[in-house]
Amino acid sequence: MSDLATFAKLGFHHIVNPAALDHILFLLALAAVYRREDWRDALWVVTAFTVGHSITLALAVTGALVLPTPLIEFLIPVTIVVTALENIAVRSRAVTPWNGRYRAVFTAVFGLVHGAGFANYLRTLFDGPIVVPLFGFNLGIELGQILVLSLAAVLLAVIDRLLSLRRGDLLIAYRWRVVSVSAAVLLVASRMAVERRPW
Q: Which of 103, 141, 170, 172 has its CA 20 to 30 A from that of 14?
């Protein structure tokens, strides 16, 4: 197996592994506010996250940026908490700055934090030339994210359907879904943040 394929596999498993619950929760928190018709907005947010984590991953793995692991491990669940809180607090993205497109900006910033977490893991796996391992690992992360987000989209659509049958109103069902999924993510991520606090 080539180095590219090996590191792509490692990146993929790093995202889909249940031990990477923090990254899965972040993706679920991001996805919680989107419906099928919001795919363009969702694409902007996912792309912004990819850009953010790719920048930090490259800087950290090359040694151009050194961040303390305990701080990064604490900040990752903090990004999840903030995202879940924003989901709950904002009832209508149409009346927010840039019609909710600010989410792409803060998701890119949060991607910087997650990229540092990926880098801490990747740095332990190799020494020597980094271009191929870095590209392969990042490719694997993206494929893993696509899988997680696809499963999340199916799960969220099923929740919407079940809630709309019970509540009878798609908009009310959607809001119930956003709040309930975000609240569940918020509880788990808050506990992670407390457990990982660096003081």
A: 103
Token pair 């920048």: residue: 55
d(CA 1, CA 7): 10
Nearest partner of 31 among 146, 152, 126, judged by Cα? 152
Q: How far apart are alpha carbons 5 and 90 in whole angstroms?
A: 41
Residue carrying the six token digits 């969220």: 156
Q: Return the HEC string of 36-55.
A: HHHHHHHHHHHHHHHHHHHH
**CA 17 to CA 144: how far, in whole Å?**
9
What separation, in Å, do the N-terminal and C-terminal C-alpha atoms of the chain show? Answer: 43
The pLDDT of residue 3? 84
Look at the block and give the residue holding tokens 């953010």: 52
Q: What is the pLDDT of residues 113-124, one digit of tens each?
A: 999 888 877 777
Q: Give the residue extent of every domain in the chain.
A: 3-196
